[in-house]
Amino acid sequence: MTGGRAATALRLEDDPGETVRAKEWEGLTRLGHEPVLRADVVRLLLTDASRPGQRLVDATVGLGGHAEALLEAGPGVELLGIDRDPEALERARARLAAFGGRVHLMQARFSELESCLDLLGWTRIDGVLADLGVSSLQLDAGSRGFSFQQDAPLDMRMDPTRGESAADLIARLDEIELARLLRELGEEPAARRIARAIVRSEPRPATTGELRGAVRRALGERRGRRHDPSTLTFQALRIAVNGELEELDRLLELLPERLAASAHVAILAYHSLEDRRVKQALARWTATCICPPEMPVCRCGGRAQARALTRGALRAGDEEIARNPRARSARLRAVEWIDER
Fold first, then answer.
1. Same domain, 63 and 83
2. 3-state SS string over the chain?
């Protein structure tokens, strides 16, 4: 055993929690994760792969799968990858090391993208990818508390160094506030019943197993369910803890200010709340008229800022879903920016 490996073994032995996390990450590295709709993302973002000086942003770099595909396909691409998860960045850095100075990785949220671009001196960018929602990395690392498949502390923070955990959130909300959160962010029909069961738990749930148990007490056992009854509750809490919709709104708001003419934007969404926001933003960008519907003749002189590159949303095919079941709910929308300022 080398000195480095010995030191790692001693550290893990001293801290059983680290041992669990090391095994999780070893499994992730061994299995790998197929980026969703990889070929379509590359095709939509790289129209001229050989053109030098292209500046792309992967706003959710994760394990670096999409970023790697873009860098391999585009020898002239320079890429900024951001992610709020420090452990994701570690693994992306290792995966993308071979691309050297063509890669810049920063820990940041969507709302901090402008600051990242300013640090690099990038006034305009030629393409943006945002693969929204929770990553495979976070779901498969059961100790992070994103999944009910393994009992763990109820954390759910994408950046575990900032903000309150899901357990903290549950502990401070009253029944009405919690029910509203479950209804609005999880689109959970039984939000009030679930909120009541959670609030009446003594103590309130602090682990994924305890939260799942509270939901099951509220809804009972029903055969033939397509999904676990706690799925929407976990989704709602995760979105709330990470401010996902607010961050997405900020990204969609700031992009028009930083897109170069002919820049391409591709966004992967996985549930209706985020896809609705993406669809509405892209519809605004591609609209040629913003006059009220009752006005018979256009008076606004509107001009589209972008043109659609996808007709509706692209979905994964059966073959990809068979290989990667998480691709089932993915919806990919893309536009080309045509507004010249």
1. yes
2. CCHHHHHHHHHHHHCHHHHHHHHHHHHHHHHCCCCCCHHHHHHHHCCCCCCCCEEEEECCCCCCHHHHHHHHHCCCEEEEEEECCHHHHHHHHHHCHHHHHHEEEEECCHHHHHHHHHHHCCCCEEEEEEECCCCHHHHHCHHHCCCCCCCCECCCCCCCCCCCCHHHHHHHCCHHHHHHHHHHHHCCCCHHHHHHHHHCCCCCCCEHHHHHHHHHHHHCCCCCCCCCCCHHHHHHHHHHHHCHHHHHHHHHHHHHHHEEEEEEEEEEECCHHHHHHHHHHHHHHHCCCCCCCCCCCCCCCCCCCEEECCCCCECCCHHHHHHCHHHHHCEEEEEEECCCC
